[in-house]
């Protein structure tokens, strides 16, 4: 609110927030955060003790339900590790969720889905800055990924048993430097071409907005060349 000039100080922001029903501040890394002004607001009578208790109660209720105050031995989740989180059952469920989350805008002549039995002898080309770069596949506020569990488009396609060729065209999503000759070489002899484009947190994330929805850098040119 202060940054948008709705309020003029941290104290005023704290008062307005608490009165509006806000009970949690995202202040990671901020030593001097807004809600540190709550005791001052309480002393000045800008908020009441009862209101403060009402705001705090659901926070502690949630933390208690999560078991934060229980001894570790009573918390069944404290013993979980990657052998459980990355178990075959969990990975299969993640795969099912990924498959069901795709939005297919246009499926000309039933091109998709690609089936391994239909790709024998086929030459696939997978191109673009998102084709084989695990780092750019995760959005903002994502956990730190374990590379061994990440299946990029290239890695997934190679599991189908087809002949797969790859080039990024440009090494990162901003796509400032584009190798057209390499892309043309790779897609020129392919039966199926998959182009993997996008933005990623290098281009847009919290506090990093874009002025338009165009593909970054030379990505549109890369797509046009692949289609041509």
TrEMBL record:
Give me the segments passing through the membrane.
none
Q: Which InterPro entries match?
A: BXL, GH, Glyco_hydro_3_C, Glyco_hydro_3_C_sf, Glyco_hydro_3_N_sf
* Any single Pfam family the record assigns to this protein: Glyco_hydro_3_C
* Keyword terms, alphabetized: Glycosidase, Hydrolase
Q: Which GO terms describe its molecular function?
A: alpha-L-arabinofuranosidase activity; xylan 1,4-beta-xylosidase activity
Q: Does the keyword Hydrolase apply?
A: yes
Gene Ontology BP annotations? arabinan catabolic process; xylan catabolic process
Q: Where is the Glycoside hydrolase family 3 C-terminal domain?
A: 103-226
Name-wise, this protein is XYL2 arabinofuranosidase
- Organism placement in taxonomy: Eukaryota, Metazoa, Chordata, Craniata, Vertebrata
């Amino acid at each position: 609110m202060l940054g948008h000039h709705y309020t003029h100080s941290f104290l005023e922001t704290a008062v307005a927030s608490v009165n509006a029903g806000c009970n949690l501040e995202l202040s990671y890394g901020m030593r001097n955060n807004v809600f540190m002004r709550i005791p001052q607001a309480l002393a000045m009578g800008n908020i009441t003790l009862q209101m403060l208790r009402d705001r705090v109660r659901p926070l502690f209720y949630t933390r208690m339900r999560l078991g934060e105050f229980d001894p570790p031995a009573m918390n069944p989740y404290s013993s979980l590790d990657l052998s459980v989180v990355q178990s075959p059952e969990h990975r299969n469920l993640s795969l099912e969720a990924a498959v069901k989350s795709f939005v297919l805008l246009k499926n000309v002549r039933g091109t998709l889905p690609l089936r391994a039995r239909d790709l024998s002898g086929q030459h696939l080309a997978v191109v673009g800055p998102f084709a084989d770069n695990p780092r750019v596949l995760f959005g903002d506020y994502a956990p730190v990924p374990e590379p061994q569990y990440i299946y990029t488009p290239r890695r997934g396609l190679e599991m189908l048993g087809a002949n797969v060729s790859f080039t990024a065209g440009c090494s990162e999503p901003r796509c400032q430097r584009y190798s057209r000759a390499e892309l043309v070489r790779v897609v020129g002899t392919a039966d199926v071409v998959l182009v993997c484009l996008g933005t990623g947190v290098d281009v847009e994330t919290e506090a990093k907005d874009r002025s338009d929805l165009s593909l970054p850098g030379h990505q549109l040119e890369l797509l046009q060349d692949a289609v041509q």
